[in-house]
Design a protein that fits this description.
The protein is mainly alpha-helical. The protein is built from 7 helices and 5 strands; from the N terminus they run H-E-H-E-H-E-H-H-H-E-E-H. The mean pLDDT is about 90.
């Protein structure tokens, strides 16, 4: 039923005045070929390609009404293509893979900065504090 409603809609209005973290409803509507008009809040600018898959407008009812008047310029096929390219399984898998790879690189850098669980800079500082004229090789241990 929801898909049919989206497909038959002229557009989807999203007059939300809080910072929506994703806005699944916007992606769902575009996946059905329905343009979205939303206030410039939260994730709307990341989900809507302004002028191509809908319109991102200032928080103003008149601006939203003006966008409704030009929504017929939006190509429903472009809306569907945008969602497939940005939020389809391949795109999401690639995004997750990128995040996991960055996390693995950061973990490796963090491991490289430690020795036996102790931060190398702390280890060197501790050894340096032990170094004296009677123990000149204290730093050689590191």
């Amino acid at each position: 039923l929801k898909r049919e409603l989206y497909r038959r809609a002229f557009c989807l209005l999203m007059p939300i005045t809080w910072d929506e973290p994703f806005g699944l409803v916007m992606a769902e509507a575009q996946a059905c070929g329905t343009p979205v008009i939303a206030y410039n809040r939260g994730a709307a600018p990341e989900i809507i390609v302004d002028g191509e898959t809908g319109y991102v407008v200032p928080e103003d009812a008149d601006a939203m009404a003006a966008a409704v008047k030009k929504v017929d310029r939006i190509d429903p096929a472009r809306c569907r293509r945008h969602v497939a390219e940005k939020f389809g399984p391949e795109a999401l898998a690639a995004g997750y893979l990128d995040v996991y790879e960055r996390m693995a690189r950061e973990a490796e850098r963090e491991r490289a900065r430690t020795y036996a669980g102790v931060a190398i800079d702390e280890l060197v500082a501790g050894l340096a504090s032990q170094a004296s004229e009677d123990k000149p090789d204290a730093l050689a241990v590191a």
